[in-house]
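Hello forum,

I keep getting stuck at the same step: I have a sequence, I want structure tokens, and every attempt I make locally crashes halfway through. Rather than fight my setup again tonight, could one of you with a working pipeline run this one for me? It's a single chain of 169 residues.
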Amino acid sequence: MIVRTPWLERQFETGLPLGMFPNVLERLRGTPARIDDRLRGVQPAVLAASQGDCWSILENVGHLLQVEGLWAARLDDFEAHRPELTPARFESWRVGEAQFNRSACRDLRASFRVARLHLVGRLERLDDEVLQAVARHPRLDRPMRVVDLMLFIAEHDDHHLATITQLLG
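Reply #2:
Ran it on my machine without issues. Output:
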């Protein structure tokens, strides 16, 4: 069996052509639908079950909802022409503290959909100056443009969707 690379060990190339913006935007727009598709009809006990120290399905969805705030902050950074993007806070306890396992899956999915559609709307309204701005990603220590950040977000979405698929067995 193929062992997935842990998220924090992933490296990302930057310099994606700006012409890829519409394609990557569609990946971001489609994440809520892909989550809905994967979780439709799954029993609540399965959604809240954890395997070892891995987050449950609900916790993975809740985490995706939580990091929408980071993506918004990083868009703020590009719009303000800051030289460095807002760093992520890797505090896995925040997921547990949020008690996502007590949430209804449909509510988490709906909240994520609203947050993601807001992010997509912001991306659609960016002007060329912001799209060409460059800022340093703090963990990767490399320059990024908005389109690179978008690919990073899409890969993060896919990482958690793959985890959800794995948890579904």
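Strands lie at 135-137, 142-144. If your local run keeps crashing, start a new thread with the error log.
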